[in-house]
């Protein structure tokens, strides 16, 4: 349930879409969308709504409340809301021109969590022209249900997410000390050089003057995974090379790639590839004979 005070001008555009069964199998699909010119007093408030909502301000300013966060959404800023929780958005001042998309899809939640792992916030879009172009294309094709159209819409929503993520990371880097990016590169280089050794976070941070927990947060934000996960995946990728190109025993490969014991190596390999190492070697060998 929600409260609505739809004070929008006649030039506003509101598009509804009924996704086909095929569209609902894609990473993203549109439920409804619009380009609104909100007047003073425009407001939407809901306890919940089964979708995600992208808002982008063209001109003027809005104010958004989601969860415990309340923030302005000025010109050139975008945000994605998880509408399954309480949310409110309204014109702040006399006018607010904005584009919006209610969407769902099997990738909608995972990318939202990636973007807002540190909490909801408005994002200053770096390439406003490109963002507006993609958003306009979605508005123009939102009600199409042919195969090319729905795949194209899904791709464009993904591209909007990509622009938001890139803009957010670049904004963080500008606000942080410049050396933080160098610290992450330094840590990655250390792990990739010493992956075969029994290295710890203390080893990685030996020459990096940042606390352990602060560095893990910085690394996870920039790389999308923790340092431990990055190192584990790097080791597994190296083990794949050895499984494909040598006849070494699994225990030897485990030791060479920095795993403390064979059982841990097998468990980590299966967790990330859904195969045991010997099955991976067999499948690769069988394919090479074709």
Portion of residues within helices: 40-55%
How many individual β-strands?
Answer: 9
Strand content: 15-25%
- The N- to C-terminal Cα distance equals 59 Å
Low-confidence parts, pLDDT < 50 over ≥5 residues?
A: none
Q: What best-fitting shape do the alpha-carbon axes yield?
A: elongated
How do the helices and strands follow one another from N- to C-terminus? Answer: EEEEEEEEHEHHHHHHHHH
Main sheet makeup: 9 strands, antiparallel
* SS summary, helix count: 10
Quaternary assembly = single chain
Specify Rg, calculated over alpha carbons: 24 Å
- Decide which structural class fits the backbone: alpha+beta
Mean pLDDT: 89
What would you say this structure looks like, in words?
It contains ten helices and nine strands. The chain has helices at 108-115, 128-141, 147-175, 179-194, 201-204, 212-223, 227-245, 250-256, 262-273, 277-288, and strands at 2-5, 13-16, 29-39, 43-46, 52-66, 69-73, 77-82, 87-104, 123-124. Strands 1, 2, 3, 4, 5, 6, 7, 8 and 9 form a nine-stranded antiparallel sheet that branches. The longest helix has 29 residues, at 147-175.
List keywords for this structure.
single chain; 290 residues; alpha+beta; nine-stranded antiparallel beta sheet; 10 helices
Strand and helix map with partners:
Elements: E1 2-5, E2 13-16, E3 29-39, E4 43-46, E5 52-66, E6 69-73, E7 77-82, E8 87-104, H1 108-115, E9 123-124, H2 128-141, H3 147-175, H4 179-194, H5 201-204, H6 212-223, H7 227-245, H8 250-256, H9 262-273, H10 277-288
Antiparallel strand pairs: 1-4, 2-3, 3-8, 4-8, 5-6, 5-7, 5-8, 7-9
């Amino acid at each position: 349930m929600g409260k609505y005070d739809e004070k929008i001008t006649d030039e506003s555009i509101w598009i509804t879409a009924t996704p086909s069964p095929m569209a609902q199998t894609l990473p993203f699909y549109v439920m409804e969308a619009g380009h609104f010119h909100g007047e003073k007093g425009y407001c939407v408030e809901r306890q919940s709504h089964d979708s995600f909502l992208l808002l982008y301000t063209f001109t003027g300013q809005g104010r958004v409340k989601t969860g415990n966060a309340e923030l302005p959404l000025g010109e050139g800023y975008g945000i994605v809301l998880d509408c399954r929780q309480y949310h409110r958005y309204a014109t702040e001042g006399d006018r607010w021109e904005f584009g919006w998309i209610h969407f769902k899809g099997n990738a909608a939640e995972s990318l939202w969590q990636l973007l807002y792992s540190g909490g909801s916030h408005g994002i200053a879009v770096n390439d406003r022209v490109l963002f507006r172009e993609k958003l306009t294309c979605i508005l123009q094709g939102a009600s199409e249900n042919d195969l090319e159209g729905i795949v194209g819409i899904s791709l464009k929503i993904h591209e909007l997410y990509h622009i938001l993520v890139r803009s957010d990371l670049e904004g963080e880097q500008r606000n942080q000390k410049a050396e933080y990016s160098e610290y992450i590169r330094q840590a990655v280089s250390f792990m990739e050089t010493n992956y075969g050794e029994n290295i710890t976070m203390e080893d990685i941070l030996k020459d990096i003057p940042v606390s352990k927990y602060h560095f893990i947060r910085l690394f996870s934000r920039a790389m999308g995974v923790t340092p431990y996960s990055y190192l584990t995946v790097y080791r597994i990728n190296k083990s794949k090379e050895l499984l494909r190109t040598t006849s070494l025993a699994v225990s030897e490969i485990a030791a060479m790639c920095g795993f403390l014991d064979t059982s841990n190596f097998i468990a980590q390999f299966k967790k990330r590839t859904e195969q045991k190492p010997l099955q991976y070697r067999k499948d690769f060998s069988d394919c090479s004979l074709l």
